[in-house]
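cron nightly-structures :: item 1 of 1
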Amino acid sequence: MGASIGVTVLAVLAAAFRPTRGPDPDPAITTKIHLLQISAASQSYHSAYGFWPTGYAEFYPEHNVNHIAFLPSEAWTTNDAWGHPLLYTPFDPGINYGAVVSLGHDGKRGGARADSDLEERFQ
């Protein structure tokens, strides 16, 4: 239950920073919120089902057993603030974590400052 409350709180925060509200003064902050939201949704999914989701589809009610919404269904939820899709790596027991990654402003691996990759791991 605590994890689902965390997802709800993150969903509200993410909605407050949606890119549709106008220019974002710091897209990295909005992107970090999206990464945290997806990480929390992964942990909530694991708590609910006892196994990790393998991709974004499982976060939506039409694609999981108990029809639970782990993420808002708007497309911006799985994009960074620059409009690039966030990369989801399912939990891997070999390395003991999963991750969600933004490739930064340029949409390419690596980079510096605004072009830096952002990553949130979950376990």
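cron nightly-structures :: done
Helices lie at 2-16, 27-49.
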